[in-house]
Design goal:
The complex is a heterodimer of chains A (115) and B (116). With 115 residues, chain A is mainly beta. In chain A, 0% of the residues lie in helices and 51% in strands. Chain A is built from no helices and twelve strands. Chain A is globular and about 45 Å long. In chain B, a hairpin with a 3-residue loop joins strand 4 and strand 5. With 116 residues, chain B is mainly β. In chain B, the strands form two sheets. In chain B, strands 2, 4, 5, 6, 9, 10 and 11 form a seven-stranded mixed β-sheet that branches. The chains are: A mainly beta (115), B mainly beta (116). At the A-B interface, strand 5, strand 6, strand 10 and strand 11 of A face strand 4, strand 5, strand 9 and strand 10 of B.
Amino acid sequence: AQTVTQSQPEMSVQEAETVTLSCTYDTSESDYYLFWYKQPPSRQMILVIRQEAYKQQNATENRFSVNFQKAAKSFSLKISDSQLGDAAMYFCAYGTLNAGNMLTFGGGTRLMVKP
Amino acid sequence: KAGVTQTPRYLIKTRGQQVTLSCSPISGHRSVSWYQQTPGQGLQFLFEYFSETQRNKGNFPGRFSGRQFSNSRSEMNVSTLELGDSALYLCASSPVGSSHQGYGYTFGSGTRLTVV
């Protein structure tokens, strides 16, 4: 079974600084997708960024970028120029075509942003 | 474009009762998935429905069931509620098809269920 591990339960960053959230996963599949979701206190999960495993290029979305290391099964999220609105729970998730739309989520990292 | 709508937002039920939660997906999204979120277990997959058929099921007891209607709206039902069923129940919708592989989900804001 696939597992997703986020080893940092909590992280903090100074406003305008850069922070990296870690995620590792375990799979025997060769084709899969990885996601980072953000869950603010409003509870709604928001997709931050996605990465297709067959793409070597790391995905970027504005201030958010990933470092995808397929051989190491690592998928970290870098947030640049952190803003107060970035404070939230961040979840790493894994999915494959074989599992339909089912995603396996990590335990989450709570990010605090200090003004 | 309207988002994923879940009703109700909050619910308090007594042990032994049953509950039905509702989810309306984004227009055009034909796959609806349900997740249970608790502080102890995190996000756990309940089931996925596509074209009114359950396509995937997580490791939950038979007290948890769901269905999908022809308009893609979905309901999940929990019978004989237990204290441990207290959780945030999240619904997520996704388009289906080869052009949407790896799309991920759009989530609703969830239903907070408290069992007393």
